[in-house]
Amino acid sequence: MSTRRGIGCVLAGLAVAGCADGEDHENRERPAASITVTAAILDDEINVSPRRFGAGPIRLIVSNQTDAPQALTVATAGNDAGITQTTAPIRPAGTTMLEVDVPEGEYAVSTADDGVEPAAVTVGAPRNSAQGELLQP
Asked: Which of 54, 61, 75 is nearest to 120 (CA)?
């Protein structure tokens, strides 16, 4: 019995030693906590609130207050390559949500309807990490 126990201990020790590869791993900080930004598509314009916030993940809640289905697009302003994300068509009086991780820069929030004036959004420096915040995903 003692031989089996000794072999078992040796094998367990080797298994534990094999799990460590000798490298130090730095813990990565969590990203910034997601913030909620709202947008309302009106007959002649798009209202976004807030219009200025820090870079990081956002949850855009969109309300279509027009009489026609509308899709909302968030795109980097100008001709720069960047983000372009579009919702599915939103029925009149309907809402939807779009999650976007926006880097620092200028953005246009628009629809395909030429009669609806786009909104300009400014994204500043990255928001702080959510590392020290409790109850974060």
From this structure: 75
Backbone angles phi, psi at 19, to 5 degrees: -75, -25
Q: Any idea which residue has 């813990």 for tokens? A: 27
* Global confidence as pTM: 0.74
Name the CATH superfamily for 35-126: Cupredoxins -  blue copper proteins (2.60.40.420)
64's torsion region: left (phi>0), alpha (psi -120 to 50) or beta?
A: beta
Backbone angles phi, psi at 5, to 5 degrees: -65, -45
The predicted-structure confidence for 87-125, as pLDDT tens digits, reads as follows 999 999 999 999 999 999 999 999 999 999 999 999 999
Query: Per DSSP, what are the bridge partners of residue 41?
Result: 46, 64
Q: Where are the domains of the chain?
A: 35-126
d(CA 94, CA 84): 22
